[in-house]
Amino acid sequence: MVMTSQLITTESNPVLRVPPAAPAVAAAYFGASLAFHADVSDVAATLAADGDPGFVVIDSRSTASWDQGHIPGAVHLPTALIAEQARELLDPAVPVITYCWGPGCNGATRAALALAELGYQVKEMLGGFEYWAREGFEFETWEGLERRTADTLTAPADSEDCGC
């Protein structure tokens, strides 16, 4: 069924006040977005699979934040230390996935920028540590491994796969 915009003017509709991009422009934008971002559940699934994931995960937060909880196997590299320590800790041939606290924090974006400026291939993990924990994936703290019950607003209740 094709929907038409009968009686709806763009002046009265805040969603369509700025019209959607042309399909080719939208395809280019969304395709480019996928080159810059990784999804929490995709990162988790890849890390859980046997073998080399093909990337390294970087936690760009402070030591206190790292101790509070981080992704198992992640490398701790605070953004402020990237310029001086990245070459010691990271192989430039291996793509990097950055994360920070969550969607309200741009620390992972700043870390990704710093790494890209040093010549690394990099993606930012959308949702950060917040969504890692909210989706029920195991994480490490200074006390050991933890896992929270998945938040049904961020992860499916009875499935490992959201169908995205």
What report would you give on this structure?
With 164 residues, this protein is an alpha/beta fold. It has helices spanning 23-36, 40-48, 63-68, 82-89, 107-117, 128-134; strands spanning 37-39, 56-59, 75-76, 96-99, 122-126, 139-141, 144-146. The protein has a 5-stranded parallel beta sheet. Strands 6-7 form a two-stranded antiparallel sheet. The chain is globular and about 55 Å long. 24% of the residues are buried. The model has no long low-confidence stretch (mean pLDDT 90).
Defining key terms:
two-stranded antiparallel sheet, single chain, 34% helix, 164 residues, alpha/beta, five-stranded parallel sheet
Topology of helices and strands:
Blueprint: H1 23-36, E1 37-39, H2 40-48, E2 56-59, H3 63-68, E3 75-76, H4 82-89, E4 96-99, H5 107-117, E5 122-126, H6 128-134, E6 139-141, E7 144-146
Parallel strand pairs: 1-5, 2-3, 2-4, 4-5
Antiparallel strand pairs: 6-7
Helix-strand makeup class: alpha/beta
Give the overall shape. Answer: globular
Biggest sheet overview: 5 strands, parallel
Work out the helix count: 6
Give the radius of gyration.
19 Å
The main sheet orders its strands as 1-5-4-2-3
* Uncertain stretches: none
H and E string: HEHEHEHEHEHEE
Q: Proportion of β residues?
A: 5-15%
Instruction: Give the proportion of residues in helices.
Output: 25-40%
By DSSP, the count of extended strands is 7
Distance between the termini: 23 Å
State mean pLDDT (0 to 100 scale): 90
